[in-house]
């Protein structure tokens, strides 16, 4: 049987050598003859097939099938994460092209309040301790802001929050709604440093519990209210300011107009809102290239959908808001994810002890893969500062200098 499989694999391996020439060595069984996918004396990546069902996922590969084979334990991979990702993309580049719109169309029918709540809890309720091992000290799970480029992750996350709060021109005593408040870092900063009255909403029980505890420890119960609540159920507007940071990826493309309409409904006529979120670089709102979107849908963000920035701006306008300032922070998120991945690798033993092997593998490949995707323009991150459509914002200075003071 082994000889038969090797005979079948060799024509594929020769094609890979001729077409791609990857520094990859494949062992399809323990003790079997290694198969090289490139002409290199020393491979940078070694793939060991642990289960025969992993072979088809390798022979017709994309990022989804390769990620699935690794996460499910069908293969083991040796080599640096950078080399492994380069090899995976080299294999996926030569797979059959896929229609990225199909996954987007399929998921457009999957968004309900119940499924959205389930998806959020699936992603964020792994455990607070798990996230705490590789996030910054304030547990900010979104793109950091490297003002000078030499900041630590902790410094850059504080600067990101301040960058947002300056952009929305938050003033003492104003009411701020933070949609998808995470573990509370933004509302804590807004209350402590800007004197705001804050409401933070989340669908994650773990986030709600820890954010509530952090507010209590800070003695800010009179300024901050954390709610386990869907943003669509917030009724106590209007708010002077609204922030949504790393949340609208869960909304769904077909729900973007109602999402922005709800923000408009909750915002004062002279209020400001900030939408900070990941976007697709496919102008047609298609999937992330080479099956990456399918892997994320399967294992990380069920029912997540990324719009192109053009779609964001169109639906925002249709929702009754005017985009005032738009900033692409793609390179900032590439660095953020890279630092998360480095921390994850450094804490590998501790993290592996916290969760099952599959969960550990999912997060390992996801964080490293996201760093790659942001670095190579497969996804982006935009901050969009907006206000209700209508009169000219005459109270603002004429230049953009106020954003950076």
Automatic annotation (TrEMBL):
Keywords: Lipid metabolism, Methyltransferase, S-adenosyl-L-methionine, Transferase. Signal peptide: none annotated. GO terms for molecular function: methyltransferase activity. The keyword Lipid metabolism applies. The active site is at residue 370. Residues 15-93 form the DUF7884 domain. Its EC number is 2.1.1.-. Belongs to the CFA/CMAS family. This is Cyclopropane-fatty-acyl-phospholipid synthase. It comes from Hydrogenophaga intermedia.
